[in-house]
């Protein structure tokens, strides 16, 4: 059994993979579009995409002869959030306070 949180942090360890995630924030991109943004070779970018996919941070779908990649933002947020909650217990309290604050009516709307 693999440690999926370790996979996420391993994926985040490389600046190219972090940049790919930032690029995908704007929406789905074809593998060729992603590769064109880097000076690295196509196979190198493909390996980076494989690491991100194996970590569950991106999904892929085929459209004819293209492979399109999308960000799985919840996966990243949950993995990093869980880790931070473990090492920074005050984050749990802050998150609870924020949830209560966002569900309560604001003074401007009252």
Descriptive notes:
This protein is of the alpha+beta class. It has a domain at 4-72: Orthogonal Bundle (Arc Repressor Mutant, subunit A). 61% of the residues lie in helices and 13% in strands. The chain contains six helices and three strands. A three-stranded antiparallel sheet has the order 1-3-2. Mean pLDDT is 84; it is low at 106-110.
Descriptors for this entry?
single chain; 110 residues; alpha+beta; Arc Repressor Mutant, subunit A; 3-stranded antiparallel β-sheet; elongated; disordered C terminus; ArsR-like_HTH; WH-like_DNA-bd_sf; DNA-binding; WH_DNA-bd_sf
Task: Give the topology, please.
Blueprint (H helix, E strand, L loop, with lengths): L3 H9 L2 H10 L4 E2 H6 L5 H13 L3 E6 L2 E6 L1 H15 L2 H14 L7
Antiparallel strand pairs: 1-3, 2-3
Summed up:
This is HTH arsR-type domain-containing protein. By secondary structure, the chain is α+β, with helices and mostly antiparallel strands.
Main sheet makeup: 3 strands, antiparallel
Uncertain regions spanning at least 5 consecutive residues: 106-110
- For the largest sheet, list the strands in their spatial order: 1-3-2
- Proportion of beta-strand residues: 5-15%
Q: Give the proportion of residues in helices.
A: 55-70%
Shape: elongated
CATH topology of the domain at 4-72: Arc Repressor Mutant, subunit A
Class by SSE composition? alpha+beta
Number of helices: 6
What is the arithmetic mean of pLDDT?
Answer: 84
CATH level-4 homologous superfamily of the domain at 4-72: Winged helix-like DNA-binding domain superfamily/Winged helix DNA-binding domain
Elements, N to C (H/E): HHEHHEEHH
CATH domain class name of the domain at 4-72: Mainly Alpha
The CATH architecture term of the domain at 4-72 is Orthogonal Bundle
């Amino acid at each position: 059994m693999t440690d999926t949180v370790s996979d996420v942090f391993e994926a985040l360890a490389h600046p190219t993979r972090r940049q790919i995630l930032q690029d995908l924030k704007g929406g789905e991109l074809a593998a060729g579009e992603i590769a064109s943004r880097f000076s690295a070779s196509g196979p190198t970018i493909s390996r980076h995409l494989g690491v991100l996919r194996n970590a569950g941070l991106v999904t892929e779908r085929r459209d004819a002869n293209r492979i399109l990649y999308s960000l799985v933002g919840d996966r990243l947020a949950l993995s990093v959030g869980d880790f931070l909650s473990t090492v920074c217990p005050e984050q749990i309290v802050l998150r609870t306070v924020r949830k209560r604050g966002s569900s309560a009516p604001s003074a401007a709307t009252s």
